[in-house]
Amino acid sequence: MKLTFIGADHEVTGSEHLLETKDLKILIDCGLEQGRNVYENAELPVSYNEIDYILLTHAHIDHAGRIPWAYRQGFNGTIVTTNASMDLDSIMLLDSAHIQEQEAEWQNRKAKRSGKNLVEPLYTVKDAEAIIKNFSPVPYDRVIELSDTVKVRFTDAGHLLGSASLEIWIDEDGVKKKIVFSGDIGNKDKPLIRDPQYIAEADYVVMECTYGNRLHDRSLDHLEDLRRIIQETLDRGGNVVIPAFAVGRTQELLYLIRHLKQDGMIRGHEGFPVYVDSPLAVQATTVFKENLLECYDQETKELVQQGINPIGFPNLHLSVSAEDSKAINEDNTPKVIIAASGMCDAGRIRHHLKHNLWRPECSVVFAGYQAEGTLGRSLMEGAREIKIFGEEILVRAHIEEMGSMSSHADQTGLLDWINAYTRRPEKLILVHGDDDAMTAFSALVREKTGLEAICPYSGSVFDLASGEFTHMAEPRFIRKETGVSVRNTKVQQELTIALSELTRLAEEYREGANSDIRRLTKDIRSLLDKWKE
């Protein structure tokens, strides 16, 4: 029994791990890489037609987006996931396939004009339609037998409707081991869905650490934050443009806006229009409206049981056709526009940015993680000019960030999740985090729990029977912008740890005595002044 690390190792997208037992070959997720690709992934050491199962933690494309491609490579096994994840992926994979076809068509039009070779889409709608038939949904908390020697249970991870951590039991040749894959661990107190459910014991834990070096600002009230942004923008006569993931974030925003409208919290613009401009988001919203009570938090359950749509309200417009989308920007009425993609790298959001970024009365609101190398990250980091569809656009709109909206647990939430184990795991292995997050969180875990967190690169192999790595792969990619290998960045990693410790200290003092807060603030400012000089 062994585990090979393939994707999302020192990166935050493209999750994929291969678990091999005597009688089964199992993929844990099969995701697409998004944003900048920092490291080269190892090849899968077996053929896709040898894979018996894909165990899918949740429906996001960075965890599920390569499943149709795997089918194209010969995979015809069973995809086991929760009921809600199956419903969501039934639309998300078709949407992804449509995008793959569109991208290939666009590239081929350019290739024909320049005499270059034509390209094929990564996969097609036909591929997605074929593999969707192989989904096998299971409920939360039920132990499922995959074979005589392998069992699995899906536990709510609180990240997205249907998201799960995987508990896998293996009993082979008298050796019994339990391995847990965290999936993406959710932020607490999210709209609509439950908080992450904790797991009590495991021999080995493979854990994400996306926000391993960051803390969400718990003092923020995202409902009030959204109210302020909408009120101020509509008062200026502008549009509120929100790049949002079609599945999860869009529905959370609708839930909050329903509250704002219901309670009359936007003054002078009662009945303001809200547009959801994404065919995928429209379909996903339908899934969210269904009575998937096993996923909902108590407040949402009570609304549904009263016959109230938790994400519906007057003057909500769901735009499906291209004509609907174009009409949004032809209407001068101040409005809220929610459109995909959440990182601004594709989709209808780019058209809305083109029409609104240059307008100082408008606001662009980021309510989720923006990967390195994406247009969304550039805007958040203060870009004053960007290029969309070959046109230079000045950034004059207000750029707002709602960090508290993140669907990922922050450093404290991650630590709470691993501290919930009543039986200490023999090995803690960190994945799904960039270098800085992994360095900071592994140091924090060592300090707070005494556990030694291991951060393998793609291609590493772990033997579950012995509990040891039989191969620790070297990084296979050099950072393009610096030309420096990660192996030579120990000094930078130490700086990251120190910064993380300072952030945690400031967070601890936030609720302390005013005199202590002033003293700490004075010391930090003194340090800043010293190094500015």
Task: State the gist of this model.
Helices cover 35% and strands 19% of the residues.
Distance between the termini: 57 Å
Oligomeric grouping of the chains: single chain
Can you tell me the overall shape?
Answer: globular
CATH class of the largest domain: Alpha Beta
Percent helix: 25-40%
Q: Which CATH-level-2 architecture of the largest domain? A: 4-Layer Sandwich
For this structure, the CATH topology of the largest domain is Metallo-beta-lactamase, Chain A
What's the CATH superfamily of the largest domain, by name?
Answer: Ribonuclease Z/Hydroxyacylglutathione hydrolase-like
Query: What's the total number of strands?
Result: 23
Structural class: alpha/beta
Sketch the major β-sheet: 8 strands, mixed
Description:
- By secondary structure, the protein is an alpha/beta fold.
- The protein folds into three domains: 2-215 and 407-471, 4-Layer Sandwich (Metallo-beta-lactamase, Chain A); 222-405, Rossmann fold (3-Layer(aba) Sandwich), CATH 3.40.50.10890; 489-532, no CATH class.
- Helices cover 35% and strands 19% of the residues.
- The protein contains 15 helices and 23 strands.
- The chain has helices spanning 61-64, 67-72, 83-114, 125-132, 222-236, 249-262, 279-289, 298-305, 322-330, 349-356, 375-380, 411-419, 435-449, 490-509, 514-532; strands at residues 2-7, 16-20, 25-28, 53-55, 78-82, 135-138, 144-145, 150-156, 164-172, 175-181, 204-208, 240-243, 274-277, 316-319, 336-339, 363-366, 385-388, 391-394, 398-401, 427-431, 453-454, 461-463, 468-471.
- The strands form four sheets. The protein has an eight-stranded mixed sheet. Strands 7-8-9-10-11-20-21 form a seven-stranded mixed sheet. Strands 14-13-15-12-16-19 form a six-stranded parallel sheet, with helices on both faces.
- A hairpin with a 7-residue loop joins strand 8 and strand 9 (164-172).
- Helix 3 packs antiparallel against helix 7 and helix 13 (435-449) crosses helix 14 (490-509).
- The relative contact order is 0.13.
